[in-house]
Structures are given as structure tokens and as C-alpha cells.
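Supplementary Methods. Inverse-folding protocol.

Structures were first reduced to a C-alpha cell string of length 497. This string, shown here, constituted the complete conditioning input.
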């Protein structure tokens, strides 16, 4: 049995980034992935000869010198075929029948909001100033050991909706500020201000798509890991974490087909799934497992991927967010299992080549609660029955109808339709309840919902979007903090300075 310095469970973005950091610092690393493909939600599949993304659509803060650019420079990802989105019109919002254009850059953003809401200038300035502060201090404010950082703690412990309501008197402006937010779960009673501000800040700084699919990120990380002596095992499902007295010793793979020994372990899968791997070994107490398993997850996403006929729909270098109602902060509460679609994110996929005139692929995303697909949990892919297929058809049709209101000729241009539900994400990425953004953070209960990399097992760490911040940027930062527990923060300081 070969022994490693670090064994990592899961080859999603967090696991791959941890593997890159640790192998780059001379450790012997092994990453175990249950699927044949690495990447988790970065996975790309091909239909009609086109690369279709599962979960990746766009990222923020990638301009030279910005937050994500500094991280991606370290991970050797800046040379991928990134496509900068339209600086003057990154997001087109449609709320209450009116269109709002959201540009890139703090000053441009503030000016745009003031043009729509001139009587709210003071509140807009305060909001944009907060975005600047969060963007400038993002690395330091999220350091797990930085418990005395009053600024970050106060933002995590304050509600986003309560804050917006305190500085802005026009509810419509609050909706416009919140409109580009299907990249998180808006919840008026729980969402921390820091989460809301940080995610908005990065995308306002700059926004990018990638040409050819998000899988290129995973493949580039894989290449970097293997060049540094790391090992990635595919079709390697970890079925138990073994050990005793609060110390892990090995991983059981594929129900005992083989075992992996290591000095340290990192889990990139959902914390609840990690706890389930220790149920038999008793490495963590039942009360701790119960606490983690009881944490509420954010909603999932239903994705309608459209393959379009050639030269029919022009490529738009922006996103469209469309809402039939203006109760944005209670979207999760209003997702009744009736197949209606009241909100969508429409993402245009740039062509594989340099031709930017037309697109062949549009993704339409809408929130979907786990309750809509839970009855089929445990069934096999492509064998869930006609009722499930009918659910997908109806929801997809409703997504297309809403999107067609903003894209003339869309229905006639469709060549093929592919769909995925939260259940799809659970099957392919082991995401608990198909959650799009991991564990739901609650500013009222930070001690329980804001997790650190450490666990009661002295040599087992967590990483991934469920810990503190989600998305590409949040996961990338979390990978740094996880590795800092092994390497010490000083060795990683040059990455974030």
C-alpha cells in the first residue's frame, strides 16, 4: 500500500487547487475522484459537437491585478481562452417590465444606478464604498485565524437585506442591486452581508467567460499537479475514512478494492458526505455528525442547455436576468413544486472559434428546490421514469418561454434541448441535495453555518464552497486557507500579497 503525504477526496475545483498548492510545495499528493471525469461542476460534456458546461458560466475579478487574477496566476490559469464580457453592459436586468443595464467598474456601476434612481444617490454611494472595502480586504478578512478582525466579523454577522434596507428607501433599487444574484441564494432572513457584498464586488470589478468550456480549468490544474509529481485516481470512490481516537490513517476505496494511506487528508466533498464516510469508523462523535448533517443547503439549479441552429441567434457578450415578479429576496420560499418559472439567468456561450457574431449554445438557469426531485433520489440516471422526464420537459418549456420574451426568434432557432436538475448534480458531483452553493450561511447563527477547514479529526481538513464562500473565487480562497493549515500561512503569503 503506497503512502502519501496528503490524500484528497474529490477532484472538484477545491480538491484540484489544494492538490496544486501542496504538490507545488513539495508534498506527495494523491487525489481520489469517484467519477471518470475530474472537475466537479466544471465538467463539460459534448452534444452536437459542442462543449456544454454543467455549472460554469462566468467569473469575476480576473482583470490584471484583481482578486481572482492573482490566484489564477499562481494556479497557471490566466492563459486559458478567457473572454472579457462587455464592460458597458455586463448584465441586462428585467424587473417589473423595465430593463436595467449593469456595467463593470465601481464608478461606472454607481453612475448607472444613479441614472435610474437619482433620488437614492447617498445610499448608492454608501453601497459602492462598501463594495470597494470588501474587494480591497478580501484575503485578510477571510483568514480563518483572523477572529479579531472586527470589520469582517461585523459584515458576516449582519444581514444583507437589512443593510440594504437601512441605506436605500426604494424597494425597486434593492431589487436592481440584487438582480444579478442567481449566482447565490438570496434570503432576507439569513444571507450575510459579507457574502452578498463580496460576490457582487468581484463581478462588478470585471467579468469573464471562457471559450471552449470550464473543463479547461480542471484539465490545466490536473496537468500542473501531475507535472509536480501528484497523482489523480479516477473511478476511485472513497467509501470509508478509517482511523481511531480522532486520527485518520487511510481511505477505503471502492468498498475495499484497495486502500490509500496518508499522513494528512483533505475532503473536497460536501461536509455531510464527509461525515457519512466516518459513520462506521466512529472517528467523529455522533453529535458532531448530526450537527453537520442537519445544516440546511442552498437551493439547486435547473439548467436548460439549448443547441441552436447555425447563424440564427447573435451572441450577446452579457447575461440576461429576467424576473416575472419582484420578490427576489424570497425566491427560495416561493419555489413551489408546480413547475412554474418566474426567474431565469440566460447565459450566451461564446463560439469555440474567434467568430463572435453568432452563438450555438445558450444556457437558461432557474432555481429549483430539492423537494421537486427528491422522490427520485436513488434511481439511476436515464432510468427515472416518465413522470421525471415530464417534469424536465415542462420546466424546460417554461424556461424557454420566459427566455424567448427577451431573445427574438429563440424558439424557432432551437436544434436540441438538454436539461439537468439538482438530482443530476447529486449523481455526478455528490453534491448534497444538488445544492448550487453549498451549505446555507445564516448571519444569525455563524458559529454553526460558517465552517473552518478544521474538523474533530486532527489530520482531516475540509475545503470547498460549503465552508465560507461559494463560487470559483470563494472556493479558490478556501483552498488557500485549507492548505495554510498544513503549510503555515507564511508560505502562502506571496500568493495574496
Amino acid at each position: 500500500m503506497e503512502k502519501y503525504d496528503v490524500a484528497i477526496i474529490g477532484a472538484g475545483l477545491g480538491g484540484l487547487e489544494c492538490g496544486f498548492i501542496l504538490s507545488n510545495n513539495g508534498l506527495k499528493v494523491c487525489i481520489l475522484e469517484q467519477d471518470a471525469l475530474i472537475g466537479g461542476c466544471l465538467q463539460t460534456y459534448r452534444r452536437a459537437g459542442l462543449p456544454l458546461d454543467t455549472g460554469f458560466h462566468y467569473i469575476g475579478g480576473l482583470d490584471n491585478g484583481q482578486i481572482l487574477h492573482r490566484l489564477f496566476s499562481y494556479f497557471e490559469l490566466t492563459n486559458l481562452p478567457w473572454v472579457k464580457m462587455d464592460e458597458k453592459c455586463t448584465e441586462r436586468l428585467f424587473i417589473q417590465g423595465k430593463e436595467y443595464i449593469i456595467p463593470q467598474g465601481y464608478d461606472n456601476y454607481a453612475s448607472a444606478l444613479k441614472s435610474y434612481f437619482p433620488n437614492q444617490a447617498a445610499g448608492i454611494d454608501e453601497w459602492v464604498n462598501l463594495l470597494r472595502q470588501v474587494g480591497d480586504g478580501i484575503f485578510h478578512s477571510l483568514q480563518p485565524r483572523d477572529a479579531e478582525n472586527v470589520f469582517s466579523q461585523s459584515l458576516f454577522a449582519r444581514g444583507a437585506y437589512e443593510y440594504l434596507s437601512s441605506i436605500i428607501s426604494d424597494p425597486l433599487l434593492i431589487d436592481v442591486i440584487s438582480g444579478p444574484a442567481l449566482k447565490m441564494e438570496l434570503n432576507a432572513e439569513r444571507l450575510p452581508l459579507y457574502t452578498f457584498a463580496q460576490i457582487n464586488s468581484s463581478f462588478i470589478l470585471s467579468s469573464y467567460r471562457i471559450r471552449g468550456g470550464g473543463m479547461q480549468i480542471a484539465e490545466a490544474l490536473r496537468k500542473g499537479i501531475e507535472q509536480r509529481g501528484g497523482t489523480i485516481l479516477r473511478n476511485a470512490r472513497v467509501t470509508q475514512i478509517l482511523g481511531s481516537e480522532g486520527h485518520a490513517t487511510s481511505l477505503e476505496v471502492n468498498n475495499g478494492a484497495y486502500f490509500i494511506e496518508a499522513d494528512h487528508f483533505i475532503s473536497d466533498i460536501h461536509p455531510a458526505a464527509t461525515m457519512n464516510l466516518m459513520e462506521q469508523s466512529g472517528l467523529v462523535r455522533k453529535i458532531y455528525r448530526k450537527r453537520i448533517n442537519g445544516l440546511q443547503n442552498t437551493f439547486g439549479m435547473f439548467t436548460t442547455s439549448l443547441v441552436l441552429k447555425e447563424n440564427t441567434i447573435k451572441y450577446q457578450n452579457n447575461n440576461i436576468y429576467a424576473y416575472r415578479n419582484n420578490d427576489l429576496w424570497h425566491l427560495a420560499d416561493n419555489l413551489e413544486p408546480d413547475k412554474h418559472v418566474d426567474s431565469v439567468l440566460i447565459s450566451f456561450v461564446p463560439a469555440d472559434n474567434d467568430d463572435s457574431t453568432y452563438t450555438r449554445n445558450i444556457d437558461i438557469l432557474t432555481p429549483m428546490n430539492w423537494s421537486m426531485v427528491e422522490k427520485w433520489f436513488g434511481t439511476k440516471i436515464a432510468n427515472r421514469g416518465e413522470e421525471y422526464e415530464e417534469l424536465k420537459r415542462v420546466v424546460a418549456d417554461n424556461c424557454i418561454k420566459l427566455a424567448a420574451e427577451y431573445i427574438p426568434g429563440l424558439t424557432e432557432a432551437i436544434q436540441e434541448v438538454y436539461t439537468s436538475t439538482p438530482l443530476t448534480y447529486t449523481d455526478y458531483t455528490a453534491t448534497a441535495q444538488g445544492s448550487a452553493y453549498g451549505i446555507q450561511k445564516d448571519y444569525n447563527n455563524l458559529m454553526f453555518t460558517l465552517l473552518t477547514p478544521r474538523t474533530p479529526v486532527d489530520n482531516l481538513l475540509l475545503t470547498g464552497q460549503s465552508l465560507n464562500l461559494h463560487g470559483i473565487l470563494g472556493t479558490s480562497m478556501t483552498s488557500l486557507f485549507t492548505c495554510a493549515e498544513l503549510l503555515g500561512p507564511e508560505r502562502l503569503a506571496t500568493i495574496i500579497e
